[in-house]
């Protein structure tokens, strides 16, 4: 056991976290049809600035990466300008925020893509299920396989978006390589049938994620670059024959890059556990553990050295002052799933904090 608590500061690369309570990336679908966010989103994140670190909802790095209606982008100068309003509000409130870059790959729909384009993927494997659009729910389509040259171009799109994130005032970037989106489509045996340098063995399936992180790190510095993985998570009809081999290979390849942090959000019961991941990633960067944590288990994980920080998702939706509630033992509000993606202020910025901001600080310091 260590003497560390959820309230111990943490240095994760260049990021200085005043506590170890991290806000998970959560899509909230409050952008306009061009992927632009406004003052409501600035208010939402500023309300949660007491987190040690906030990770934004997934932002598409290129218009071909958009996967859902009203999700925000980081694909051009207008997006940079829009996000600047958010990062300024967060910093004014004393917070830290990194941008999550998310390319949906095969999970998108032609209605969401430029010119009605077909979604792209490592291989033409059609996902079961459907996607919600303004024209109703539509069954997923068979994606188009990226050529080898196009794969390299997508890697560069991520690096360009990372540069935009810094221009927008973000403190860093997280690559979303989970939840069945494009990077996980490369990692997983069920969706990657390629025979070039990006498919086949675990090393080759990991190459896209490794090269993308290397490109982001070269663009903005490894010490403010993070990665999210979700081993074993079947979301978006993704499957892998051997997650232990896949993610073991990935983490071994990434360790020398020394990124700021790894966010691990495994499917509960997955063979690729936090304990295994933390051991394999040792020395590679700070280790953030997520999925289903409450305060007690988060505190235990931190004290025992099982994780450097704990990532909380749903608890942050209904409790903008989550760290203060943990510090004071205040009860937690429950989030209403009906408003997760509903648009508008309701269920977004109207969950109250228990105390005005200045009294929070006094409570945490006490
Ligand atoms: C409404 C909602 C939206 C989410 N959107 C994203 C997302 O954009 N990117 C991502 O990596 N994870 C996303 N997640 C998953 C969370 O980051 C987190 O891994 C998950 O909620 C488990 O943590 P929890 O049990 O503390 O909620 C989302 C979760 C929720 C509830």
Q: Keyphrases for this structure?
A:
TIM Barrel; 33% helix; 366 residues; alpha/beta; binds flavin mononucleotide; 15% strand; disordered C terminus; 8-stranded parallel β-barrel; two-stranded antiparallel sheet
Strand content: 15-25%
CATH secondary-structure class: Alpha Beta
Low-confidence parts = 362-366
- Average pLDDT value? 96
List all distinct small molecules, including ions and cofactors, that are bound in this structure.
Answer: flavin mononucleotide
Helix and strand pattern: EEEHEHEEEEEHEHHEHEHEHEHHH
- The largest beta-sheet arranges its strands as 3-4-5-10-11-12-13-14
Blueprint of the fold:
Blueprint: E1 10-12, E2 15-17, E3 21-23, H1 39-47, E4 53-59, H2 77-92, E5 97-101, E6 120-121, E7 130-133, E8 136-139, E9 144-145, H3 148-167, E10 172-176, H4 182-187, H5 202-220, E11 225-229, H6 243-254, E12 261-264, H7 274-281, E13 286-290, H8 295-303, E14 309-312, H9 314-318, H10 322-328, H11 357-365
Bound molecules: flavin mononucleotide (FMN).
Walkthrough of the structure:
This protein is an alpha/beta fold and 366 residues long. The chain has one domain: Aldolase class I (TIM Barrel, Alpha-Beta Barrel), CATH 3.20.20. The chain is 33% helix and 15% strand. It is built from 11 helices and 14 strands. It has helices spanning 39-47, 77-92, 148-167, 182-187, 202-220, 243-254, 274-281, 295-303, 314-318, 322-328, 357-365; strands at 10-12, 15-17, 21-23, 53-59, 97-101, 120-121, 130-133, 136-139, 144-145, 172-176, 225-229, 261-264, 286-290, 309-312. Helix 1 (39-47) packs parallel to helix 2, helix 3 (148-167) runs parallel beside helix 5 and helix 10 (322-328) crosses helix 11 (357-365). It binds flavin mononucleotide. Flavin mononucleotide binds at residues 24-27, 57-58, 100, 102, 176, 178-179, 228, 265, 290-293, 312-314, 340. Residues 24-27, 57-58, 100, 102, 176, 178-179, 228, 265, 290-293, 312-314, 340 line the site of flavin mononucleotide (FMN).
